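Exercise 7. Predict the structure of Sporulation protein from Brevibacillus invocatus.
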Amino acid sequence: MKKNIRYLSIFLLIGIFLSWPIHSLYTRLAQPVEEKQLADLDQIAQQLLTNVKKGDLEGARERIDLLALRFPNQHLPIPIRIDTLNAVTQSILAAKQSIHSPSENEQQLLWHATRVRIAIDALTNDQQPMWRSYYPSFITQVQNLQQAAVERDFEAFREQFEENYRLFLAIKPAMSIQLEEAKMTGITSTYEMISKEIRKGDKDWQLVREALRNLNSDLEDAFVGEEKSTFTRLMMRPDSPLLITTSISIAVIVALSYVAYRKYEGEFRST
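Solution. The predicted structure, encoded as tokens:
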């Protein structure tokens, strides 16, 4: 009896360890051609960002040229709005122009490469896209903006707003892929309104503070408002590694119970 339990426990552990490779293999085999091609683009975008971070401009030029060549012919597995498609395309073209420019500085190159990387990721990853990881930075910056608006410290406000708006522009193409048009329009309009207000000679700080409150609420809704728990999302998918692991565990437990039952039955009859 103990020997059977030991063997079945070993089989259970082996099944659990193999569930993830099995899931990965199943996913690759079942992946449509369009998704495989898009996964290749995602890898190229990651290589582009890596090249820029390392200062390998030659490698970065090769990657951005390849992206600019392939993306217009890419069949997307998900429907996106025409303005969103244009935003992603323009981010690739802007990055290409920047990387091929002999006078572009490192920070600008990194900004363009990051924007392309995040946008391509949003096309391939609808569960935990990279752009959502910027939520803590956004919230911290908006809180700093609110404090500067309360104190009416224009220089601090202007500097922090430019930094925050630049971050928004970096992830905007990616956000527009996965957010409703109305939400994107609301966030963009608020940024434009604040930008317009701070360029005025006589600034309405009350209006700015109200806009920041709306922006904070809209960003919270955009980043985390509709997000389900990772466990729930994974368990609901038929190809989920957690579901595969659970299925293997249940099968082994059932087998173990059956062996225990037959062993007990045999011992009972022998008495």
